[in-house]
Amino acid sequence: MTTSPDAEPGASPASPDPSRTVRLVLTGDLDYDTCGNLLQQVQLALREHEDAEELRLDCAELGAVDSMGLSTLLQIHRAACRDGIGFHLDNIGPVLKRLLDLTGTYEHLHSTR
């Protein structure tokens, strides 16, 4: 997927990991129009890896993130914590870091369980 304004966010298929970690690479913009797609992809990956102990979302290729995108990340974090799965945002770019700092959610999203 590309990072153009019309791009839907994508998550690369989860690869088997002997450490029971589900790793997804996020691409494109995460906004009102696309956040449902990301949520479905994460839920599917976790269903396919029921023994997962950790969820890592690589944000290096993530474009713009609006309030609905942030809400979706918080929802994914909440569900992972509820299910006892560690949660990590990797390779956070400056735009996402600024949004997380401004909203006071940076530290919250870095609590792993």
UniProtKB/TrEMBL annotation:
Which superkingdom, per the lineage? Bacteria
Ranges for the region named Disordered are: 1-20
Domain named STAS is located at 11-113
- Which Pfam families does the entry mention? STAS_2
PROSITE patterns the record matches = STAS
- Signal peptide region: none
Q: Which Gene3D superfamilies does the entry link to? A: STAS domain
Entry-linked InterPro entries: MlaB-like_STAS, STAS_dom, STAS_dom_sf
SUPFAM superfamilies tied to this protein: SpoIIaa-like (SSF52091)
Which named protein is this?
A: STAS domain-containing protein
Q: What is the lineage of its organism?
A: Bacteria, Bacillati, Actinomycetota, Actinomycetes, Kitasatosporales
